[in-house]
Amino acid sequence: xxxxxxxxxxxxxxxxxxxxxxxxxxxxxxxxxxxxxxxxxxxxxxxxxxxxxxxxxxxxxxxxxxxxxxxxxxxxxxxxxxxxxxxxxxxxxxxxxxxxxxxxxxxxxxxxxxxxxxxxxxxxxxxxxxxxxxxxxxxxxxxxxxxxxxxxxxxxxxxxxxxxxxxxxxxxxxxxxxxxxxxxxxxxxxxxxxxxxxxxxxxxxxxxxxxxxxxxxxxxxxxxxxxxxxxxxxxxxxxxxxxxxxxxxxxxxxxxxxxxxxxxxxxxxxxxxxxxxxxxxxxxxxxxxxxxxxxxxxxxxxxxxxxxxxxxxxxxxxxxxxxxxxxxxxxxxxxxxxxxxxxxxxxxxxxxxxxxxxxxxxxxxxxxxxxxxxxxxxxxxxxxxxxxxxxxxxxxxxxxxxxxxxxx
Length: 408
Hints:
The protein has 408 residues and is α/β, with parallel strands linked by helices. The protein has 18 helices and five strands. The protein folds into three domains: 5-93 and 107-138; 164-326, P-loop containing nucleotide triphosphate hydrolases (Rossmann fold, 3-Layer(aba) Sandwich); 332-406, Helicase, Ruva Protein, domain 3, CATH 1.10.8. It has helices spanning 5-21, 29-46, 49-55, 60-94, 99-107, 111-135, 171-181, 205-213, 216-221, 236-248, 259-270, 287-296, 313-319, 332-343, 357-364, 369-378, 385-392, 395-406, and strands at residues 194-198, 224-231, 275-282, 305-310, 325-326. The longest helix has 35 residues, at 60-94. The two termini are 29 Å apart.
């Protein structure tokens, strides 16, 4: 079974487009028409993606084409997420517990301005998809249908790149973890040390792991670094394929290999090197599956380490050989800095010293980075004290976002 990443991403975008079509958002006929056009173009491209992903191994131009498609799909997801936020706003307006105060607050979000902004973004996406669709005929691709063995998984994907300025308040934790990972112990020869990072959804486990992964001391200490997003499907073969691709790149149709073949490729990739493996977003609580995976990574040098990020204390218990690092809420000063970063343009907050509600809003976010970023983004460009006061007094919104973060 091959790993059809571009196919999966395209399906995710199409799913979002379909969902938006049924949401009660004031889009206007022109925007809906462009969304339908976008759906039609991407559906045409998707029809040949299975063939493209199989043939890309021997065609560098095709690999570039697929990467460009994935880039546009990721950008599309970001744009379509804005529609979902708008739908959430409308949903909140209908809740009796929120009432007229929130209606007043959201009335400042001009529907016409939103429609104009989104229309422009959708037109840009349509143009990019049109250019990609025009090139697909150059590769003589044929339509392939998903076979019965192919099970499309809608999974959360993460990557190792981090914009360090976007992560606030985790420097000391990063320093401690880096120190722990770069200290070798002769006793490690018996077993690969595993450090779990544990915390609720939205607390910044992945962000902290990225900071550690990209630290200069870590780069100097480890010969090989592998980032694997696990999500809720702890399929042994799939994870080995991801690890090999993280270490060697996408050479060959790894998905069609048997596990016996893959373990040899993995050992060749590790090749007695001192490696760091990050397993991000782990949900598996089956100790047997964990031990099977860990055994496959026994081909590295002494000093190799594994970092696991998870929301589950049980996962930390079965996987960890080192005491887990429990990620706590941000302190107030760091919470404030993160909130201001998303609520104002750089330096703009100094122009509005009378917004006393800022502190109270930050306190209600309970130090959860995801919630701070979300509310900061919702309040971006809103500078009247009345708007901030209404938002501050809307308890239902804080409860909703804090609940969502626990399931994020």
